[in-house]
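Worked example 3 (structure in, sequence out).
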């Protein structure tokens, strides 16, 4: 089997390692089957997509809709590199799954409106699949409504006409969409369980997602939720595209 490629951009080692382990666990992959590149650490190397089964973009502290002068040089570089890679991925309809940051990257690349209108605080939310979502192979075996963990400053306000809306929440109208047949993005985290969310709340308590003094309360709230359905997306993605 060709490996899957995880493109990560979390500078905090604890968050980066937890994310990688989650993709291994819930994708049922071994380290040799999931190559990781940490984009925040060094420029993206030359990639031949033929060497991989699919590309996954993990979450990120970067906010793509921020004004250009508010972004670091590292963020500008990462955005340029991802945009260039997406040129090739979209042209080939090469299997792609972007989680959280994937909405900002794939969405902006395809002409979606990405802004802060529909941000959500870290925690559990109820996701509802559209009719197209219920019929999509990546969501096979999932109920119409399920709990997922989320936490994002920005979201998609308007999809381009060629995108297919697959899932929404009460507070965020675009939680998952598809471009062409093989390009997916989710606003919620399909890799994240309660303990993983607790780790991120602790690490990102001063990152502007929530008032720092509310971190302990958010951690307690996170442990009250059980999110197991979103992980089926990772298993379906791996089963569908492993080659």
């Amino acid at each position: 089997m060709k490996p899957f490629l995880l493109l990560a951009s979390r500078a905090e080692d604890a968050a980066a390692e937890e994310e990688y382990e989650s993709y291994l666990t819930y994708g049922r992959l071994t380290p040799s089957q999931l190559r990781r590149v940490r984009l925040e650490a060094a420029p993206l190397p030359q990639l031949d997509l033929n060497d991989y089964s699919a590309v996954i973009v993990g979450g990120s502290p970067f906010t793509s809709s921020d004004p250009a002068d508010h972004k670091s040089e590292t963020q500008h570089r990462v955005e340029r590199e991802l945009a260039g890679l997406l040129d090739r991925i979209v042209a080939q309809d090469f299997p792609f799954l972007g989680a959280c940051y994937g909405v900002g990257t794939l969405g902006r690349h395809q002409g979606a409106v990405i802004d802060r209108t529909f941000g959500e605080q870290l925690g559990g939310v109820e996701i509802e699949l559209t009719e197209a979502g219920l019929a999509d192979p990546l969501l096979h075996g999932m109920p119409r409504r399920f709990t997922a963990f989320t936490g994002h400053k920005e979201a998609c306000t308007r999809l381009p006409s060629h995108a297919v809306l697959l899932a929404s929440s009460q507070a965020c109208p675009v939680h998952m969409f598809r471009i062409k047949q093989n390009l997916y993005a989710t606003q919620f985290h399909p890799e994240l369980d309660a303990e993983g969310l607790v780790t991120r709340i602790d690490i990102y308590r001063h990152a502007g997602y929530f008032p720092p003094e509310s971190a302990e309360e958010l951690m307690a709230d996170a442990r009250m939720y059980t999110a197991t359905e979103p992980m089926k997306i990772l298993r379906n993605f791996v089963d569908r595209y492993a080659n």
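Notes: The chain has a mean pLDDT of 94. The domain at 4-241 is CATH 3.40.50.880 (Rossmann fold).
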